[in-house]
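Backbones bend. Shown next:

***
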Amino acid sequence: MGSIQDVFPIRKEESNFLQAMQLPGNAVLCLVLKAVIELDLFEIMAKAGPNAQISASEIVTSLPTSNPEAPLMLDRMLSFLASYSIFKCTIVTDKDGVDKKLYSLTPICSNYIRNEDGFAIGPLLLLQFEKVFMQAWYQLKDSVLEGGTPFNREYGMHAFDYPSTDSRVNDVLNKGLQNLTGVTMKIILEVYKGFDGMEELIDVGGGYGASLAWIVSKYPKIRGINYDLPHVIKDAPFLQGVEHVEGNMFESVPKGKTIFMKLILHDWDDDHCIRLLKNCFEALPNCGKVILVESILPESPQSDCVSNISYYYDMMMMAYCHGGKERTLKQLEALAKAAGFSAIKPITQAYFYWVTEIYKT
């Protein structure tokens, strides 16, 4: 049977209203998706086989629940997600003539299933919709009217400082960022060839060294220097081919021919970025370069998927990091030239990130 909309099509004058009504559903979509990830449903369905069709009742047998309403609740959640093409729903009729919904994975689901390296984007969504961070958004209107960063207004501290006060949130944060690094660095290393032949690489603001570990694993001749604050470095694990060095990037940067910075500039205002880039400029020899991995905003808003994600990240920076923002290429170029660099060049795109080189000549 076809959809009722096939019989009674939507009138043109109704489409704008329906689109407006659909927008709030995006928030519900993310929260239902969050619950599905927490229930590990993607992994449960994946274990049933690549083309398996499975009912909500069958899925519930893998969950630690005795709730008699769980199958019906789950069926409604899966139907909702199927309406967004996250799952595929097939109606089958059993021998008693009763219709039953069976669900299967779609290609988009592969991103929520742990890959061969153990990474997926699910933990990133759990971070983005962690209730501590979500609460800050309720300060957005007052931030516009009265000033201040939403997160700081809500908690009286910077978003970078909060995780040290809450071990659960710190765990959610670390898992989210580790999985993001694991997913994105793999594609970056496939499309960007600038590490070939390199002997040394300094990762400024490299955290525990996860990005360097990926780079050095593919290019074992590179000597990696992971540079971050003392309280970060003291907990950094041993990584083959990586030396952990503590310091403050706004005071100085280790000297070397090539500096790598992944998702650092977007955390800071222009003045901090220029100060950091000036320190990089001083640390580099002539003909040295900085390799940036950042989202790049279009010069004017676009409605494509990459632009949507980039603007979404810009909103998160506005909510969590005072002065932090995603930037256009022209804005990045202005920062680089203010720090003394001669040129900036986007090299290749990896998902919604750009690998961009900044040159000192």
